[in-house]
Amino acid sequence: MDFFAKNALWIGLAIGSGIMLLLPTIRRGAGAAVSASDAVILINRSHAVVLDVRDDAEFAAGHIADAKHIPLAQLPECFKELSKFKDKPVLVYCESGARAGKAAAILAKNEFKQVKQLQGGVKAWQDAKLPLVKG
User: Fold this and answer.
1) What's the pLDDT at 48?
2) Which of helix, strand or coil describes residue 132?
3) What would the DSSP string read from start to end of 75-126?
4) Is there a domain that residue 117 lies in?
5) Distance (Å, whole) CA 16 – CA 115
6) Do 39 and 74 have their domain in common?
7) Which residues are registered as beta bridge partners of 22?
8) Which has the least CB within 10 A, 14, 80, 86, 114?
9) Does the pLDDT at position 25 exceed 80?
10) Residue 73 sits in which domain range?
């Protein structure tokens, strides 16, 4: 017991450091953000369903190939259509990431088990020199 009293500060620092190291792992549950390169791997290897939650004009200006287009505001209305993908990887993206985060949270609350969001959205996709489909 004397050991703990003399080293309380060091023990506290060790516990705090351990928690900080584990925090990113804990946060990686549903809706975890993935980079553009990780998204490509997810699409190609895991056959992820790609979900674009941007507005119609943004989608028409350029989107990831084979992406399903469901604007964020219409997402709750489309759960029946999307329910067949509850056990499949789902990659959600928007222009910069804010709407995708909201969409990923909504999907996770509705029992979608493998939801990921494209970190940085379409901007990150373009920065990685990856193609977009127009129209």
Assistant:
1) 96
2) coil
3) GGGGHHHHGGGTTSEEEEE-SSSHHHHHHHHHHHHTT-SEEEEETTHHHHHH
4) yes
5) 29
6) yes
7) none
8) 80
9) no
10) 31-127
DSSP state of 48: P
Active-site amino acid positions: 94
The answer to whether residues 82 and 114 touch, using CB atoms and an 8 Å cutoff, is: no
Task: Tell me what percent of the residues of the chain surpass a pLDDT of 90.
Answer: 68
CA–CA–CA angle 24, 26, 28 (5° rounding): 70
Same domain, 4 and 52: no
Task: Return d(Cα 76, Cα 70) in angstroms, integer.
Answer: 10
Coil vs helix vs strand at 73: helix
* Span 50-59, pLDDT tens digits: 999 999 999 9
Same domain as 115, residue 63: yes
pLDDT of 75 reads 94
Residue 100 belongs to domain with CATH number? 3.40.250.10
Dihedral class, residue 64 (left if φ above 0, else alpha if ψ from -120 to 50, else beta): beta
Under DSSP, the state recorded for 29 is S
The domain tally of the chain equals 2
Segment 87-116 shows an average pLDDT of 93
Q: Is the pLDDT of residue 28 over 50?
A: no
